[in-house]
Sequence to fold (114 residues):
Amino acid sequence: MVFECVKRVNELVKRMGQLEDNIAIETEYVKEVYSKASRAMSESQHYFLNGVQASPVTKSYLLTRKGIEVVGEEAIPISAFIDQALDFANYPKKKIEVLMVLAKHLEAMPMNLS
Fold:
């Protein structure tokens, strides 16, 4: 009985590791698509990323040709911004939710990224 308990918990640990690996793979893909979207924008274009939080302080993030911008601050590289948002999420379920919000924003952007 104890052996079975340890075995079952070890299986959960193994699956959690696989899930974390999958999150890392999908995160890199999201970064790639966001970078492509940013490069496709003109200097005057921007896209508001509402619902995405990368720190305890709520800010308005804009995707622009320069990366991610916050009014009154320097542009943040897309890769660093997505890493910050996922670090702020801090557990797998929330990280997946953040990736979904980011994916939904890509879906809503008025540009063809095929």
Residues 4 and 13 are 14 Å apart (CA to CA). The longest helix spans residues 2-40. The longest strand covers residues 61-64.
